[in-house]
Request: fold
Amino acid sequence: MPSIQPSSQATNPAIEWFGQPLGLQLMQQFQRQAIPEITRVFGHSGLYLSPGNQQPSELSGNMLAQVLSLQREPEGFSGVLRCDSLNLPIASESLSLVYGLCVLETSPDPDALFEDMVRCLKPEGVLVLLGLNGLSPTRLRWHAKGIRPVGKSRLRRLCADHSLEITKLSQVGPIWLRPQEKIPRYRANQGLMNIFYAGHLLVAKRRIAGLTPLRKASQAYKLNPGVGAV
Reply:
């Protein structure tokens, strides 16, 4: 009888790029520029979605008592728990913050993932999304990896569709990215060149509850006040 060959681990070039030196360097800069927005969010629980397991598992600068961290993998997300890409096992309206670091770019359905992130937010909860800019020259570093950026106009539409009030939508990162080079901090100067920065930062607040149908998550992982992180 022939031996059973073990199945190989699925790979994904888009996810793997975020774990390479250039991807890690760029994500680190994005994270630093988002810290001021995170420190303004207070509450008990949050969710941090990162583009791969090479990223730090803790969300720096957060002021929350508990943050659940999940990392992108080829079949969905892993970390404290595993789930598919489009059904986060988090109770509806249970989080003060949902923070997504370049996770729409590797989702099979970015709109559905966006909807599920909004579903998890409490009224007045904050969504912070960092994404890649498809107009930036830095796209030459990742465009052949299967990464699909979500543009600012699409983000505005998604926020309007899901009753989110945008409090910030700005550029982040460098215009170009070289190995081992210190990345200059983005400065919000007026001018055409701003549209070419490597990424964008969206900060939006869920102002009105109950207008968007909420999908019920199976096996919901509920973060209760008074329960510390494991």
Observations:
- Residues 22-206 form a domain with the Rossmann fold fold (CATH 3.40.50.150).
- The radius of gyration is 18 Å.
- The chain is about 20% helix and 25% strand.
- Residues 60 and 154 are 28 Å apart (CA to CA).
